[in-house]
Write a structure and sequence with these properties.
The chain is mainly β and 105 residues long. It is built from 1 helix and 2 strands. The protein is elongated, with a radius of gyration of 34 Å. This is Helicase MOV-10 Ig-like domain-containing protein.
């Protein structure tokens, strides 16, 4: 049986996380919070996990950031017109289809 924790619905706790990086990019992290009613090692704890992301960007990256969401444009359907004429030819002299050694698997 889990011990009774005295938290009300809607309670919140602010947590400040510091992050430093010399690289530019997006860095995901998983935070695990453990809650116990007291410090007794035998006390049953419960955990809350949160996934966060840290975004490191330069001042140039901020200046060049998009000003609106990307909206891809569709291209009109296009079928190229053939610019050549296909003419059936004659087999080469001496060609015998029964002696063809090329097989297709």
């Amino acid at each position: 049986m889990l011990p009774m924790f005295f938290y009300s619905s809607g309670d919140f706790y602010e947590v400040e996380v510091s992050f430093r990086s010399s690289l530019v990019g997006v860095f995901p992290a998983t935070l695990a919070f453990e809650f116990k009613p007291n410090l007794d090692p035998a006390t049953t704890a419960f955990h809350i996990l949160r996934i966060i992301e840290a975004h490191c960007i330069t001042s140039l990256g901020l200046e060049l950031a998009p000003v609106a969401p990307y909206k891809p444009r569709s291209l009109p359907a296009w079928t190229p017109e053939p610019d050549c004429k296909i003419v059936d030819g004659l087999p080469p002299e001496g060609y015998d289809p029964l002696l063809n050694t090329h097989t297709h698997i």
